[in-house]
Amino acid sequence: MKKIVLHILNTGSFSGAENVVITMINAFRKYDPQQYKFVYVSLEGSIRERLKQEHIKYEAIEKVSRREIQRVIHKYHPSIIHAHDFTASIICASVAGKIPVISHIHNNSPWLRKVCINSIGYGVSCFKYKYMLGVSDSVFDEFIFGKVFKKKERIIGNPISITSVQEKAQIAECKDSYDMVFLGRLSEQKNPEAFVEIVKEVKKQLPVHAVMIGDGELKEKVASKIQKNGLQEVIELKGFLENPYGILGNSKVLCMPSRWEGFGLAAVEALALGKPVIATGVGGLPGFIDESCGKICSSKDEFIQESYYLLKDINYYQKKSQGAVFRANKLDNISKYIRNIEVIYERS
User: Fold this and answer.
1) Among 55, 90, 123, 236, which one is least packed by beta carbons within 10 Å?
2) What range does the domain containing 62 cover?
3) Looking at residue 31, what is its pLDDT?
C-alpha cells in the first residue's frame, strides 16, 4: 500500500516553491512510482490549472489554518506531512499529532536572524519536526535558533533538471528576445525596483531592451516607476508566464537584485540556457554564481558595470555564456535529489 504524503503550501499561485514541489512529485512518479501517493494541498488559485495539466492530486483549502489542515488530515490519513515554508510548517506542527512533519524552508526571511515573534514561533514549532530541510546553508546559518536544532537540519538544495529547462524553452509559446531579464515575483524580496534603476543607468551608456516577468504586490509601484523614468519603451512588463523559458533562452542576461533568497532557482534555469547571471550575494547564489558564469554584485554600480560589459563586449559575453552551461551541468541533480528525499521519508 502506498504511503500518502501531503505537500502543504500557503499559496495559490505558481512560483519557486510551487515549482519545486511539482518537480519533486513528478520525479517521484518517474523514479519510484510504487512507494508514495502525493496530494498537493494549498489555497485555491491559479495553481489548480497547473496541477490539472500535471495530473497531480489537488486539495484546495480556504486558508492554512488548524481547522482546515485537520480536515485534510482526517480525509487522507497521511503517513507524512511535508510542509513548505514557515506558516504551513507552524500550523501543521500544531495539529499533526503523531504524524511526522517535515519543515521545508525555501527562503531565508530577514526576521530569521533576530529574536522576534516570528523567529520564536518557528523556533518553538521546530521541536515537533522530524526533519528541517533548507535549500542552502544560509537558511539555517542565519536562523538565530538554528544551532539548537542542528541534528534535524538537512541542506538539500533544489531539484534541478537541466534537460527539463531546455525542453521547456523549446516548446514555449513566447520566445521574444531582450537584453536584460528580471524573472520572479514583484515583491520586496526580489527587489524589482532596483532592476528598473539598473536598466535606467545602463540605458545611458548603450541601447537596451529589458523585460520583467512575474506578478506581485509591487506591480503598480514598479509600473509607476517605469513611467516616471520614461522607460515605457525600454522595460516591458510581461506579468506571470507559465513558461518563461522561451524568453529567457532568447535573451542575454538574467539580473537578480534580490534582498534575500533561499536557493535562487531562477539563476540555475538561466545558466541551463547559457545565460550569464548577475545577482546579489544572498541565499544560495554565491554557492554557484561567480566570474565564470556571471557576477555576484555588492552594489548598484557593480550591476550597471557588469551589465554594460556583457552587452557591449561579445567575447566577454560568449565566455561567460559558455561558463554558464558548464556550471549548470555541474548542478544537475534530479535523481540524487529524489533519493535524498526518499531517505528522509523512509526515516520519518
Assistant:
1) 55
2) 3-159+333-346
3) 84
Q: Are 255 and 180 in contact (CB under 8 A)?
A: yes
Q: What is the pLDDT of residue 33?
A: 81
CA angle, 53 as apex, 83 and 56 as ends, to 5°? Answer: 35
Q: How many CB atoms lie within 10 A of CB 147?
A: 10
Segment 244-284, tens digit of pLDDT: 999 999 999 999 999 999 899 999 999 999 999 999 999 99
Same structural domain for residues 71 and 120?
yes
pTM above 0.85, yes or no: yes
> Is 137 found in the same domain as 203?
no
Residues 327, 214, single domain; the answer is yes
Task: Flag residues of the chain having pLDDT under 50.
Answer: none
Cβ proximity of 100 and 348 under 8 Å: yes
| d(C-alpha 348, C-alpha 82), whole Å | 11
How does DSSP assign 9-54, residue by residue?
A: -S-SS-SHHHHHHHHHHHHHHHH-TTTEEEEEEEESSTHHHHHHHH
pLDDT tens-digit series, residues 335-346:
999 999 999 999
Beta strands, E only, 116-160: 131-134, 153-155
- Measure Cα distances from 19 to 209, 269, 305 in Å: 28, 12, 32
CA distance 320 to 44: 41
